[in-house]
Amino acid sequence: MSESTKPHPQGKGEKTHVGDSSYVGIDAILEQMRRKAMKQGFEFNIMVVGQSGLGKSTLVNTLFKSKVSRKSVQPNPEERIPKTIEIKSISHDIEEKGVRMKLTVIDTPGFGDQINNENCWQPIMKFINDQYEVYLQEEININRKKRIPDSRVHCCIYFIPPTGHCLRPLDVEFMRRLSKVVNIVPVIAKADTLTLEERDYFKQTIREELRANGIDVYPQKEFDEDAEDRMINDKIREMIPFAVVGSDQEYQVNGKRILGRKTKWGTIEVENIAHCEFAYLRDLLIRTHMQNIKDITGSIHYETYRVRRLNESNIHFSRVSVLCQSKKYFPYTQDIKF
Amino acid sequence: MASSDVARQPDKGVRPLSLAGHVGFDSLPDQLVNKSICQGFCFNILCIGETGIGKSTLMDTLFNTNFENFESSHFEPQVKLRAQTYDLQESNVRLRLTVVNTVGFGDQMNKQESYQPVVDYIDRQFESYLQEELKIKRSLHNYHDSRVHACLYFISPSGHSLKSLDLVTMKKLDSKVNIIPVIAKADTISKSELHKFKIKIMSELVSNGVQIYQFPLDDETVAKVNTTMNGHLPFAVVGSTEEVSVGNKMVKARQYPWGVVQVENENHCDFVKLREMLICVNMEDLREQTHTRHYELYRRCKLEEMGFKDTDPECKPVSLQQTYEAKRQEFLVELQKREDEMRQMFVQRVKEKEAELKDAERELQGRFEQLKRLHADEKAALEEKKRLFEDDQSSFSKRRAAAQLLQAQSLTANGKKDKDRKNSGFM
């Protein structure tokens, strides 16, 4: 356990004296936490929603730089559009620099593809609520597992087709309903069909429509913790929705091998922020805000579900806690004196 | 600890994949650590030991601060616990430390119930966490965790063996809290005696089935250190907040005429080992054990005690909801019965009181009548007297009038007689 590289304490709480020999070692707990986290591994569940042909599978593959999507795992010789919405989830164990993660990608083929798309959010909503239910049941068990397996959907990426005009009623309906139960990250799919001006105009329209309909996408304004958070998140909110391009093919550009899409008029580099905003999306989802996304799912969306569920089925656990103190409630052994 | 580590065992349908480039989720542990730094940490230590054995001094030395300490008297009638919370900070880590001391432990004549207040305190902390967890609207991440994470048990340096009070107390606590036994005031024992003492203590603990906290061996980075330290238990510690100059440095030490006992010198005592194990290496594990082992055990026992089960006698899984509904019905029925009983008792009492009041009223009425009659009688008597008096008065005035008349008549008669005499003289 390396101690020589620890920094000297700058100062301590209330009743202290500062000196060279005053190192206690409280900050070693950070290292302990890190070790524990690395040993346990992480879990992340991401759902992709959008009409077929918008590049969902490709984007997910690009995000995680490997073939994580359903299509790569179960190759169908003929791509048929399902008659109803199906929910398919695939899990992978991935590892990077000693950090292990169980990634689950939940695909929703058939969404928005029927002629009558009313209530197309229902199967998805049901799936998300079912995951919350499974977690809740495990949590209220008497003998429960040391670590409850987390299958709750942490993040839902919603693909907006690049029409360039405004959101469609389907988009508005879906996002309005789902933003209350899960973190939604809207992205503009296949953004290489929009010029920069069209893209900016489209984004602005979308943002206004989201605001007008009261849709709170991730990062939600009300969950900003402090001024610093708000500053960072405001910058992100100004860029939402991200205009992304996905690709899992590499091309040679300027002597480097880069993921991109090659067309007759040029090569679109996926990770070049001048070309598209994929890098921002990846940074948000993975490099900076992944833990925050999981926290919001766990402490806010799940808790909301739990409150609603407990109120519905009349399990007033506050009554359970009353039963815990049953000694106070049961014997009325004294006579009531008037 | 044997845990069902989800990520370790390959699930069905989970394929290991290799990445073709740098994705970036290796920053996840950093994100987690940053979040914890923002939130701050919580650590609760319970110190059990006799009065004057050096608990507060050791806490001061461990955390390098001067906690407010009171010297307790030896005459406490019962064992009490005093908990104090402090906010400490080192570089960017904020720690909310709660130190709980026993007051009056081992001072009473009858020490049979000495362990009970400690057990009650620990259970109370578990209970309040359970309550919070079972609430409908709960805020677990904001909750100030007051469950005891580590228990330092101070053994008196007799040099012989554990006292029976020690054994009894530790036996009661070993399933509720992580016990770390320490030998206090270790500067009173010589090296050879100390070695024998430690062996004796450990063998007594083993033979009595006391499960003290074992430093975890499952993580390779710290397994070696922890194994060595496990062999040095219980730690023989010396505490001191005074500084003495040794060589050309000021060190924490205790100065005796025959020498200086340096607290941070590993040859002199095991203080550094204790600090390293308790704080630098295993603090997180202590917290985790408290939550996953001791708290879960408490929760399981508590819920089972109340009659909740996961499976009913036919071994079909019973949902908490069903059991709860049944319990709730029972409870409501019982409540209803009690309410009815209470109501009946109330009605009866009211009737009794009413009857009493009616009697009183009647009595009062009777008295009133009687008094009225008395009054009327007296009034009549008085009237009678008045009448008599008036009769008297009127007869008296008649008599007086008559007398006056008579007098007047006699005067005139006399006058008339004179006149008559006068007149008769002339005849």
UniProtKB/TrEMBL annotation, chain A:
GO terms for biological process: cell division. The lineage of its organism: Eukaryota, Metazoa, Chordata, Craniata, Vertebrata. Belongs to the TRAFAC class TrmE-Era-EngA-EngB-Septin-like GTPase superfamily. Septin GTPase family. Its main location: cytoplasm. This is Septin 9b. Residues 40-312 form the Septin-type G domain. It comes from Amphiprion percula (Orange clownfish). GO terms for cellular component: cytoskeleton. One of its GO terms (molecular function) is GTP binding. CDD domains: CDC_Septin. InterPro entries: G_SEPTIN_dom, P-loop_NTPase, Septin.
UniProtKB/TrEMBL annotation, chain B:
Residues 343-388 form a coiled coil. The keyword Coiled coil applies. One of its GO terms (molecular function) is GTP binding. Residues 407-427 are annotated as: Disordered. Pfam families: Septin. It comes from the Eukaryota. Residues 39-305 form the Septin-type G domain. Keywords: Coiled coil, GTP-binding, Nucleotide-binding. The keyword NAD does not apply. Residues 415-427 have a biased composition (Basic and acidic residues). PROSITE patterns: G_SEPTIN. PANTHER family: SEPTIN. Belongs to the TRAFAC class TrmE-Era-EngA-EngB-Septin-like GTPase superfamily. Septin GTPase family. This is Septin. It comes from Amphiprion percula (Orange clownfish).
